[in-house]
Inverse folding.
C-alpha cells in the first residue's frame, strides 16, 4: 500500500467529494496549480469514456482499482500535498444508491485509505449537462449522503460553497490550516 511507502511519507492528502457537477475537477486543478503540486483526476470519467457500452455494476471494482492506482502513482510526484478529485467514497455512495450495495473489495480498500482533509462540494453552482452525469434533480440528496458518510467516518471535512472564486478561497483556507 502507498501508506507504507517511504517516498510518500509526509504527503498530506486532500480529497474533493460531493455530487455530480459541483466543480470538483475545476477546483482540484486550481488547487494543484496554487500549491505547485499534482492532482488526481477522477478515473471513472476516463474509464467510462473508453467503454463501447453503458457502464454496469461489474465495472465499479475496475474503476476503484484504477482510481487507487492513479492516486498511488501520482502521490510519488506530489510536492508535499496531493489533491484528489475524488476517492472511493464516491464509488461507495454511488454503488449503494444505484445497485443497492457496494462490493466488499471496494469497501475493504475504502476503510484502509486515509485522507487528511475532505472538501465537501456544495450544490450551489449551476448544473451543466454531460453524457456521464445522470441526476440533476438529486444533487441535494447526494450531498446529504456524502455529508452523512463523512460524519460516520469521523473525517476531517470542510463544506465548500459559493462561486468558483469563493470555493477556491475556502479550500485554500482549509488546506493552509492543514499544512501549517
Amino acid at each position: 500500500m502507498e501508506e507504507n511507502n517511504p517516498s510518500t511519507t509526509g504527503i498530506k492528502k486532500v480529497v474533493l467529494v460531493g455530487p455530480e457537477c459541483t466543480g470538483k475537477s475545476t477546483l482540484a486543478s486550481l488547487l494543484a496549480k496554487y500549491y505547485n503540486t499534482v492532482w488526481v483526476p477522477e478515473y471513472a470519467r476516463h474509464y467510462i469514456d473508453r467503454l463501447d457500452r453503458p457502464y454496469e455494476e461489474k465495472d465499479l471494482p475496475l474503476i476503484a482499482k484504477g482510481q487507487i492506482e492513479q492516486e498511488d502513482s501520482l502521490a510519488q510526484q506530489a510536492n508535499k500535498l496531493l489533491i484528489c478529485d475524488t476517492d472511493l467514497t464516491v464509488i461507495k455512495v454511488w454503488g449503494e444508491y444505484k445497485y443497492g450495495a457496494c462490493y466488499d473489495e471496494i469497501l475493504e480498500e475504502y476503510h484502509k485509505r486515509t485522507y487528511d482533509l475532505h472538501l465537501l462540494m456544495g450544490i450551489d453552482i449551476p448544473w451543466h449537462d454531460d453524457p456521464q452525469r445522470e441526476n440533476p434533480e438529486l444533487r441535494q440528496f447526494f450531498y446529504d449522503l456524502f455529508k452523512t458518510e463523512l460524519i460516520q467516518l469521523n473525517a476531517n471535512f470542510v463544506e465548500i460553497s459559493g462561486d468558483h472564486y469563493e470555493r477556491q478561497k475556502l479550500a485554500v483556507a482549509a488546506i493552509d490550516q492543514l499544512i501549517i
User: Anything to note?
Assistant: The CA atoms of residues 49 and 131 lie 9 Å apart. The first helix runs from residue 24 to 34. Residues 1-6 have pLDDT under 50 and may be disordered. The first strand starts at residue 12 and ends at 17.
